[in-house]
Design goal:
47% of the residues are buried. The chain has helices at residues 2-16, 44-50, 66-75, 79-82, 98-104, 120-123, 150-163, 201-226, 258-261, 286-293, 333-338, and strands at residues 19-25, 54-56, 59-60, 108-112, 131-133, 138-140, 145-147, 170-176, 232-237, 243-244, 250-251, 265-268, 275-277, 281-282, 318-322, 344-349, 352-357, 360-361. The strands form 5 sheets. An 8-stranded mixed sheet has the order 5-4-8-1-9-12-2-13, with helices on both faces. It has 11 helices and 18 strands. The model is unreliable at 4-13 and 140-145 (pLDDT under 50). The protein has 362 residues and is α/β, with parallel strands linked by helices. The termini are far apart. The chain is globular, with a radius of gyration of 20 Å.
């Protein structure tokens, strides 16, 4: 009788636990969304979600690379602490992740990925996921790498939601890669009402990037339509931004200007009052925040904070960096990378930002 009662109590606790949906959009600059003031209509669905959310205007990631950035979010530790300072360097299994915490708490956990750097063997963040869909279908930039388009990401996510056990709370992560290069012009997503071939090279670049953002937004909207809203927290963010020829640079991995480091962050759900926040937040805050929203125990050695409840000083320092070069050969890649210094380092304190290139200020 006692065991039955215990199981009933556990089931009741799980049924009351909140759900969590994390949507991350690869290479998405905050300033290319309408809810962050962009002049073109690239993001009607994200903007609609922003109206229901607490929108953070001052969100900075730790590195402008997908693997290091997402691992930092899931572990709440800096890339140089975990040794994951470059893409394709898996985090040690000894480093706990928030997904393991959700799974151990009885959550059904699922993910659909679209960036090759997040494949389980290249990131080691599949731990704790009941389903980790990282079987991509088509070549990426002709280099043998793979990606999955937004339409397919959403289709897989919707199928997971249709089949999930509704008696248990869920944590689901959907990662969209479409704004990443190469930028495709998507039919039906011409937000500038002009064809890229009719523009000069820089404007054409912008138009194609905007079209990719709009395409991803459309399919994110499809996902948001099927996600249960009651008792669900929805978090939308990005792994890093993109430089579209600002500072004479195209891309994201080698520079740490605002274009590559400033990303959107929207949080909605029970007890979250919609509005705007200028608090200086960081990627490593994502993990502690998600755990706190679900009422779960914080990670050991977490460097971030729950940004929905903590009082964050305006002068809170935020550090970030990036690394050049390839992945070394050897049995202990993380140890070998530890001896290599970052190519760029930066710190933001209040309205001041300092960038060092090879230990010299820019």
């Amino acid at each position: 009788m006692g065991e039955v009662l215990f199981e009933v109590l556990i089931a009741c606790a799980l049924s009351a636990a909140p759900n969590v949906l994390l949507i991350s959009i690869d290479t998405l600059r905050a300033d290319r969304l309408g809810c962050y003031g962009y002049e073109y209509d690239t993001s009607p669905n994200i903007d609609k979600q922003a109206a229901r959310s607490l929108v953070f205007d001052n969100m900075i990631v730790e590195e402008p690379q997908t693997g290091p950035s997402m691992i930092a979010m899931f572990t709440s530790q800096y890339p140089r602490v975990t040794g994951t300072t470059r893409n394709a360097v898996p985090v040690s299994s000894a480093v706990p992740t928030i997904i393991e915490s959700f799974h151990d708490a009885g959550y059904k956990t699922g993910a659909v990925l679209s960036n090759w750097n997040l494949k389980r063997e290249l990131s080691n963040i599949a731990r704790g996921f009941d389903a980790y869909e990282d079987d991509f279908g088509r070549n990426w930039i002709g280099m043998g790498r793979k990606e999955r388009e937004a339409k397919d990401v959403t289709n897989i996510a919707i199928e997971w939601f249709e089949k999930r056990d509704i008696q248990k709370p869920f944590l689901y992560w959907a990662h969209y890669i479409d704004p990443h290069s190469p930028y495709h012009f998507r039919g039906g997503f011409n937000v500038r009402d002009v064809l890229p071939r009719e523009l000069d090279s820089d404007e054409s670049l912008d138009a194609r990037y905007d079209s990719e953002v709009a395409y991803a937004d459309h399919h994110i909207g499809r996902l948001l339509e099927v996600v249960p809203r009651e008792n669900t927290y929805i978090v939308i963010t990005a792994d890093h931004g993109e430089s579209l020829m600002e500072h004479g640079y195209l891309g994201h991995t080698r520079e740490i200007y605002q274009t590559t480091m400033h990303v959107p962050l929207l949080i909605s759900g029970p007890g979250i009052d919609p509005g705007r926040s200028a608090a200086p937040v960081r990627g490593i805050d994502i993990g502690p925040t998600l755990l706190a929203l679900a009422g779960l125990t914080p990670l050991t050695n977490a460097s971030g904070v729950d940004i929905t409840s903590a009082t964050i000083p305006v002068e809170r320092p935020r550090v970030f960096e990036t690394y050049d070069g390839g992945i070394p050969d050897g049995d202990d890649v993380r140890a070998e990378l530890a001896d290599r210094p970052p190519s760029r380092q930066g710190i933001i304190v209040g309205s001041w930002k300092l960038i060092l290139r090879d230990d010299r200020p820019l």
